[in-house]
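Ops channel
N.P.: pipeline sanity check, posting one input/output pair.
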């Protein structure tokens, strides 16, 4: 199976066999396995490397002093926890696991070396950075303008489309390990409100949740209910002019 990172970056441009081998080698550096509910890096820590999610789900979050948590983004297989985070003196947020996770911790020197020697990879990594910024903008719209049903439906659409892009869906189904508390922390809703909203989506036959699996019987219908436009994910190979010939 292709490395999720490669599948993700090839949504921007077709990589050469050499590019892919470089990414495979990079993904084997500093491999760590973490359990669910562990921090990969904490607010206040000094970042020394880039963390690449090889498997499992993680999130970026902030804690208020009274214990409340806001999830700011989700990290899926193939995601990098900020391409240039190592230039910061200290972290202003935390990154924690939601499920058992395997990561590669890639030193700064290695990233700089790859960026300098492999322009297609460098361009693709900049694309990933810009897509992440676009996702954050869409989350701001989600919190500020969409109602509860639209928020939850929009988030489920986004996660499904992102997972599909790295080959982690089966037909109209995908893994969904998020708890109702996790959905609440990501959408600014109470757990009670999330529960009620999921029931509405089920009753409308827009989703099926069984255990840790999500099935979307009609993706177009769910997208319409969510006012979801996938254009902010930029999945139409905008870097096709950089495509490798091999």
């Amino acid at each position: 199976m292709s490395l999720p990172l490669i599948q993700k970056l090839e949504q921007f441009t077709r990589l050469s066999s050499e590019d892919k081998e470089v990414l495979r080698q990079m993904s084997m550096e500093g491999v760590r396995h973490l359990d669910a509910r562990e921090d990969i890096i904490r607010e206040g820590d000094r970042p020394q490397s880039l963390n690449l999610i090889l498997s499992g789900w993680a999130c970026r979050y902030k804690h208020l002093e009274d214990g409340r948590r806001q999830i700011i983004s989700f990290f899926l297989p193939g995601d990098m926890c900020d391409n240039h985070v190592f230039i910061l003196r200290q972290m202003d947020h935390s990154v924690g696991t939601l499920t058992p996770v395997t990561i590669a911790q890639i030193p700064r020197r290695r990233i700089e070396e790859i960026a300098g020697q492999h322009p297609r990879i460098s361009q693709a990594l900049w694309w990933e950075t810009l897509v992440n910024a676009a996702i954050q903008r869409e989350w701001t719209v989600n919190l500020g303008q969409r109602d509860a049903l639209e928020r939850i439906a929009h988030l489920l659409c986004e996660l499904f489309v992102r997972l599909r892009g790295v080959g982690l869906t089966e037909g109209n189904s995908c893994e969904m390990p998020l708890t109702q508390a996790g959905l609440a922390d990501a959408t600014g809703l109470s757990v009670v409100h999330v529960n009620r909203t999921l029931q509405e989506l089920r009753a409308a036959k827009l989703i099926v949740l069984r255990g840790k699996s999500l099935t979307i019987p009609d993706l177009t219908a769910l997208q319409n209910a969510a006012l979801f436009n996938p254009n902010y994910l930029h999945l139409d190979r905008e870097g096709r002019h950089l495509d490798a010939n091999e």
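N.P.: looks fine end to end. Residues 61 and 72 are 5 Å apart (CA to CA).
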